[in-house]
Write a structure and sequence with these properties.
about 350 residues, alpha/beta, 7-stranded mixed beta sheet, 14 helices, 13 strands, about 40% helix, about 15% strand, binds pyridoxal-5'-phosphate
């Protein structure tokens, strides 16, 4: 007896990054921010009253929409709030895709897109990220939904706004630009959400604002798209504690900017140190680096071994067991102390394997 829909029965579920329990570990595997959120966030959470808990939260998270509207200089009704950026991705698949309406995206990218496509039962049209005519290839798919992760995970690379503007113009469907890592990048594509009626910008409070544990993200688009997405959204998809925390976090821009600068500074140091050890590291626009290890160590000594030896030392990074990433490690930028521990451990490991 098959209780599930055929696509659910057949698919493998999404596997989130390992979340170890121990306190004394160096956790550089899921791109969390290594610094705590603004002190205002804890105050806001502590200030949530019993009365507020008893009642349902604001359906549209209006407190957050107002605060974000001021910070981003976009009208509040151009913002839709979500239980993490991933929740907005789910809404988009439900709203735009089905068996006759495929999704397209460049690869390699965030693997959750494929999982959500399988759940929704829609076709997947993959385009090579390094294609010389990426926008042409994406437009040619004529997909109902096109997702560009920008800056991209796990490559850390970024596509210029003009390029995506040309894509938005050419394509027939909706363009979702996943800006989960934009806080660490040299620029964003926010303007496109005002300029085009088929562009949605996704933002997350998990990375730049140190709130991965709270689950809060949002989308920015013109009201036509926002109104459609609201039909798909769970009525109370963000809770009262999350609204308070996210609102306090986005209001404290000074703390946020200082925090982001610290991470960019550490990113540069980590990149240089890894290169010094012989890793190939591209200039990242995110809070992680992708370190290529081909040519390191003795013949036959793979990156998986390095990953495992780091884990033995309680240092966790991300290893992807897929063909085009199998010689690379994705390493979240940590604090100075965490990055130092990682570099020391890598030195020790490389000595024993060369
Ligand atoms: C982290 C992330 C998101 C959203 O994460 P949430 O924690 O759900 O806000 C979306 N896309 C990418 C590529 C991410 O890395």
């Amino acid at each position: 007896m098959n209780y599930f829909r055929e696509n659910i029965e057949k698919m493998a579920g999404y596997v989130p990054g390992f979340q170890p329990d121990a306190a004394d570990i160096v956790k550089l595997n899921t791109n969390e921010n290594p610094y705590p959120p603004s002190p205002d966030v804890l105050e806001a959470i502590g200030g949530v009253s019993a009365e507020r808990l008893r009642r349902y939260p604001q359906p549209l998270a209006d407190d957050f929409r107002r605060a974000a509207s001021e910070v981003l200089a976009v009208p509040a009704d151009h913002i839709i709030c979500a239980n993490g950026g991933d929740d907005l991705l789910t809404m988009c698949f439900r709203a735009f895709c089905d068996g006759d309406r495929p999704v397209a995206y460049p690869v390699p990218t965030y693997t959750l897109y494929e999982t959500l496509a399988r759940l929704q039962g829609c076709g997947v049209l993959e385009v090579a990220l390094d294609s010389p005519d990426l926008t042409g290839d994406l437009a040619d798919t004529a997909a109902a939904l096109t997702i560009v992760c920008n800056p991209n995970a796990p490559t850390g690379s970024r596509i210029e706004q003009e390029t995506l503007a040309r894509l938005a113009e050419k394509m027939s469907g909706v363009l979702l630009i996943d800006e989960a890592y934009v806080d660490f990048a040299d620029g964003d594509c926010l303007e496109l959400a005002e300029q085009f009626d088929n562009v949605i910008i996704l933002r997350s409070m998990s990375k730049g604002y140190s709130l991965a544990g709270i689950r809060f993200g949002y989308g920015i688009a013109r009201p036509g798209l926002i109104e459609g997405l609201l039909k798909v959204k769970d009525s109370y998809n963000v809770d009262v504690v999350a609204i308070g925390a996210a609102t306090a976090a986005i209001r404290d821009q000074r703390y946020f900017m200082e925090n982001v600068e610290k991470i960019k500074d550490q990113r540069q140091r980590l990149t240089e140190k890894l290169r010094g050890l012989g890793f190939e590291v591209n200039q990242s626009q995110t809070n992680f680096v992708l370190a290529g290890c081909s040519g390191l160590g003795a013949e036959g000594f793979g990156v998986k071994n390095i990953y495992e030896r780091l884990a033995e030392r309680n240092i966790y990074v991300r290893y992807f067991d897929v063909p085009n990433l199998a010689d690379k490690l994705r390493i979240t930028v940590g604090t100075e102390e965490q990055n130092g521990k990682l570099i020391e451990a890598l030195k020790g490991i490389l000595e024993t394997i060369s």
